[in-house]
Amino acid sequence: MNLIGNIIWLIFGGFVVFIEYMLAGLALCLTIVGIPFGIQCFKIGIMTLFPFGQHVREVPGNIGCLSTVFNIIWIFLGGIWIALTHLIFGILLAITIIGLPFAKQHFKLMSLSFTPFGKEIYS
Question: Transmembrane ranges (predicted)?
Fold first, then answer.
């Protein structure tokens, strides 16, 4: 079912969102200051390519205050808008019964895109 869900996800916009995250990550990596944020864009982009079968969790152990500072900067510089976009799409898909698995993926992406520092993706 994960394979079928990922194929449908890719056909109906997942690949376009993946390309957008990759381009944003490349643009951020052009500057030295933006490299940590570009890496997070790459992480979110990989998650948007095949979200079914992948999970997000907090990094075990001590994360440190640097990731908290980076998360705050991320939220103010656009993370809130990315998370709200995934929330809106998740709510719209949750209205229909057939869209519930895709809404769940948008909610998972929302939590990752709101505070990506200190989180990891695992299968």
Answer: 6-39, 59-77, 83-103
